Amino acid sequence: MAGALESITNPVRCWQQPPSPEFVKLYDEADMMTGYYIRKPQESIGDVFGTTYEKIHMSQKGWREANRLHRIEAAPRRVTNDGRQHQEMRLHLVKLGMLTSPKR
């Protein structure tokens, strides 16, 4: 799992499952969340906006191995890039007036 607060300059942090207390704290502070299982839309929207961070692909086998802690090398890069790409897409959508900033 990965998470970061709104600003693209904030670090993206990675955690192994289950959620750590640090992740729960970040989740509780967040105004909004984006998540997985939106692979194709994320990749397409990232292409349209020319985002800096590419979508890194991992196979089912790769995820199984990472979840079992056998081969985790690609997983932190994958979830970090996903988080950064979500941040960049959000900034583009806000700039175009298609999304507003969260309100408390």
What does this structure look like?
The chain has 104 residues and is mainly α. The chain has one domain (2-95). The chain is built from four helices and two strands. The protein has a two-stranded antiparallel ribbon with strand order 1-2. Helix 2 (39-49) crosses helix 4. The longest helix has 22 residues, at 74-95. It is globular. The model has no long low-confidence stretch (mean pLDDT 76).
Shape: globular
Strand order of the largest sheet: 1-2
| Element-by-element helix/strand order | EEHHHH
Estimated radius of gyration = 14 Å
Counting helices, strands and paired strands, the structural category is mainly alpha
Strand content: under 5%
Question: First CA to last CA: what distance?
Answer: 25 Å
Oligomer: single chain
| Integer tally of domains | 1
Total strand segments: 2
- What is the helix tally? 4
Keywords:
104 residues, mainly alpha, two-stranded antiparallel ribbon, 4 helices, globular
Question: Would you kindly provide a brief summary of this structure?
Answer:
This protein is mainly α.
Write the layout of secondary structure elements.
Elements: E1 2-3, E2 13-14, H1 21-29, H2 39-49, H3 60-67, H4 74-95
Antiparallel strand pairs: 1-2
